[in-house]
């Protein structure tokens, strides 16, 4: 008895305020800890977002600048067409030795001795090999240029481009880097003369695939993505809206429609790669459609987007209050008139928001496109959705697998382009929702 | 898809596929019928579940705490800025996460392990590979944070006000209310949300293709590369192979397996969420 009583005695000797504090401090400390966990979780999440975006932007913003070399190229007849056969043999202009023109101009600009071959080779390596096709296209487009001297803006080779942007560590031993000291000296000499300079890179938007980073761009991929988005929009919006109207307004409530509803919800959560397999089996193997075509990609993405659009449309239709329907029906409108004249226009902002979000999702989707052969090296612009093309995210995937520094830059640049598209689409969806949102 | 998978199972027995422990689909020379290699699903499934587990381990605490803070503590202003910002993470295409893993997270983990190893043992050798379960898991975890947080947020805010007021009125602190009253009440819904998130982690492709590696093996260390079902589907089908060989047809069998797994997770999650919802309506 005395044992039990002694703690009570001790407690009662304390002042009343301390007694009340027992446990409270500990509980408040736990409370504060809990808050800190919460805040740090949110901070961590936002930190990751910032890290992700800053990685992409810091790697990628330089992709929108391209080092160019503007040289006065002499389109000398001696080099292009020494035997004057171009009127009879059209091939002559295609196969002429255009790199020689670049070499001559560069030798003249730098004041080199044309007989020292290794030195001249080093100098010509500074200009992208794509100069050949560039000059050829100029001459083929306008043969009268032969014999004239025209200033031409050529792309600098990728390593020179990186060096000029300060991305190559020049303190590394010369043998261990791709840009030689002599080339750096020439680079500075040309830059001082105003011949070599950075300018806005239009090529990244217009070029197709290339194994040379400086001549690679997302042009073909943009067109491919555009085709696919159009196909997705044209197919999934009418089908999705029609299906939702039927399910929401006409379908009887029975086990079958319940089953369909559950299925649609499940379809929205199926991994996207399974849609790719489905597309491969049904559209390519069974229906015999061409591989790598934007058409098949569009179909697959439509399948993927449909559940999203149906769910959004049904929610929008459900949000239209029954009083609107009753009023329309009461005034003598038929069921069709009620839906198409009253319910659908009121639900339209919600439907469009859902569609834009679905499209944005489809635009960033990669996995299913890999399976239907969109991982392709496509140089030429696809004229129709049936021709081989690639898509923006697939182009990013292909570039991400390349090792060169310049491709890391291009990859990030392509990601920036993709993200800008997504930001605009999502902003559009948000604005639409803000503008037309109604509270009944 | 079923018929393609059926053609695969006519060549390779289902028992070998589902219970085989070696993944080694050799590209058989034309005409040699039986030298087609082994198609054991288990190493792939093990890798898939392991990476998904690491991702959940990373995403669940962060997502859940963020959701609790936003639902219970945050001022409306913080909530209206932090919530959309976190949801931006969900809108970023997965290929971007893959690239992030490839150029930032992977090399970062590799370098930090080199330094750590050097400090501890003096031997500057990295013990974390740039492509590893850990890399893929962490990056996938970042991707999953918004799913966990927004789904849990919805469920926590659905818990009736009366429960909260009752607990606070009895003198409990906010964190005690959350731990003893709100979380138990929201638990079924949260479990459902986590299952939905897990099904997303299992079906994720682009992050693992770029960050997890291609070596199909079973192991316990998260520092080495491992591969997943989705990676192998991509690898078996991106190449110039005939559609009649088991090497390509196996992709359809893998796809069906993946589909069934995610479908089960989803149905179970929806079932739990539905059951829970009846309590308050």
Automatic annotation (TrEMBL), chain A:
Protein name as catalogued: Phosphate transport system permease protein PstA
Subcellular locations according to the entry: Cell inner membrane; Cell membrane
GO CC annotation terms, alphabetical: plasma membrane
All residue ranges annotated as the ABC transmembrane type-1 domain in the record: 222-428
Molecular function per GO: phosphate transmembrane transporter activity
Pfam families linked to this entry: BPD_transp_1, DUF3333
Protein's organism: Rhizobium fredii
Chain segments annotated as transmembrane: 34-57, 226-247, 267-287, 293-317, 338-363, 413-432
GO-annotated biological processes: phosphate ion transmembrane transport
PANTHER family (UniProt xref): PHOSPHATE TRANSPORT SYSTEM PERMEASE PROTEIN PSTA-RELATED
CDD domains: TM_PBP2
Membrane topology note: Multi-pass membrane protein
Tagged with keyword Transport: yes
Keyword Transport: yes
Gene3D superfamilies, sorted: MetI-like
Keywords, alphabetical: Cell membrane, Membrane, Transmembrane, Transmembrane helix, Transport
The family this protein is said to belong to: Belongs to the binding-protein-dependent transport system permease family. CysTW subfamily.
Major localisation: membrane
